[in-house]
Amino acid sequence: MRARLTGELMARCWRAERALTLLVLACMAVGTVAFAGLGLASKTVVDAAVEGDLRLLVLAAVVTAVAYVVDWVVDDVGFTMRMHVVERVAQTDVEPEVMRACTDVDEIDHLERTDFLDRITAVRGRAWAVVDSAWSVVEAAALVLRLALTVALLGSVSPWLLLLVPCAGVQLVLDAAGRRRSTAAEIATSEDQRLQRHLFELCTSPATSKEIRVAGAEDELVARQQATALGVVHARARALLTAAALSTAGWAVFAAGFTAALALVVRSAGQPGGSLGDVVLAVAVGSQLRSVVQQAVGRASDAGGYGRIVEPYLWLRAFAAERLAGQVATAAPPTALTEAITLEHLAFTYPGAARPAVDDVSVTIPAGTVVAVVGEYGSGKTTLVKLLTKLYRPDTGRITVDGTDLAEIGTPGWRAVTSAAFQDFGRYQTTFDEAVGLGDPARMASREAVDAAVAAADAGALRSRLPAAGASLLGSRFDGTELSEGQWQKVALARACMRTRPLLFVLDEPTASLDAPSEHEIFARYMERSRRLARDCGAVTVIVSHRFSTVAGADLILVMEHGRLVEHGTHPDLLARPGGGVYAELFGIQATAYADS
Ligand SMILES: Nc1ncnc2c1ncn2[C@@H]1O[C@H](COP(=O)(O)OP(=O)(O)OP(=O)(O)O)[C@@H](O)[C@H]1O
């Protein structure tokens, strides 16, 4: 798997930056040759000096100097170029791929699963490590070559020097044991690490710090962050100390072996066939061996670090591929609704939840209907509209659109005939007109389309008050104009009006952040728009609301309780139920509350 991934990533580097990739590979090859040449040239310098061969001495000295400089320069240039290639491929290739692993999956349930989120957190901002892992493998291959050359040179001086190889092996084994300990410590403390980050974010984010200040909980949270962080730091430091001790022991073994081998070489230098150059070569190649082993340890440590990112990356790819394979669409969405959207025994339970959020809901919503979904907090209203917009797959039951199972209709096609403004609307930090236009990317460049959507959501006054009207940047992240909650909601509502012929128009608590006059105005406008859409293409409008009074004019009201559809009908029907029903009771409570306030 790793080998295939390495090949694939190297091919991506090659496609993205052909010349630079070639340059980095060439640097590695030249570096390997220069590295081997360095020891041999040094030996020749000493031998030529001892024998008084001036020409050879100068030539060998020049070769030594050149080999030294070349080794250093290609290392430096290769590293800089490699980082450029890695960054480029990470940002323009791997990061978009990870984004697609999130967005190509039809539903959004994976974005709420901890196993998925943990992996996204691991990969976020670290795509470079995925790409660099491939380069590490290539570099490791070059190191093996260096090691082979070094061992051959050692053997050519004295077979005793080959004793250094097992000594280097001991160092590698001890170092790997130390690394395993620090990785284990990192894993064991990762939850606490996330907790301390969460506590930090709670106190520093504008959204959450308000409540914390008012409650006076900041000291408690800072103390908890400190205590948690200390626990993490101590556990990791203990593991690092153990790793350092193991590594030091490994180097001590290597140093002892090196000293013993050198003594043997020095002794044989005085005997026939031996030379001073051999001693120099032994010192040079011995320390080269140390440097190669050190680099190998470094690469192995990188590989361990990369493994923690490559594994989640591969998991995300496999997850997305599996889900995409299951997304088989056999039907196109209709161009107009003529019959109904029907819910048949629809049920859905969130992963890990104890009870269903939507439980055995059956109802027929005729084409051209404005339907209101009401109910108390957590009764399943939003989940119901998420099932209608294919953001979740029902566990059991089905939704049909003019008789066709929604599961068979391709999700992109269904979304192209759906418009929605959700309760937790997005705050796109771009220009006002773009934040609206994104409701229909195909028409976002059309000035008329954006103007019409702004007018439909009654957001014209808001736009004209902005410093540069529709060209004003929204949000404070990029130094734009910050909007109030209600203003952001108006932008979201305008965005939902970009499509001119949606067959399903969803408004989830569309006025939760708006004042009473705006709420009234918006509802009147949406009712009018919904009636027009119903005439044009039989569109169904679904309005989710807590406020019963505002949806009294809907053609059909669905009353949800604990995930179940407990009543449905028109406002007069529901009020007239014998003995009063849930709707009549809740409507009565709200009417009294508003009258008293
Ligand atoms: N992402 C989620 N993961 C797990 N459970 C969830 C999730 N979202 C909602 N729930 C649970 O599902 C149930 C229905 O939630 P839903 O948001 O559909 O209710 P709602 O009627 O729209 O509530 P509200 O009026 O507060 O918006 C609730 O019990 C809620 O706790």
TrEMBL record:
Keywords: ATP-binding, Membrane, Nucleotide-binding, Transmembrane, Transmembrane helix. Gene3D superfamilies: ABC transporter type 1, transmembrane domain, P-loop containing nucleotide triphosphate hydrolases. CDD domains: ABCC_MRP_Like (cd03228). SMART domains: AAA. The keyword Magnesium does not apply. It is a multi-pass membrane protein. This is ABC transporter domain-containing protein. It comes from Cellulomonas cellasea DSM 20118.
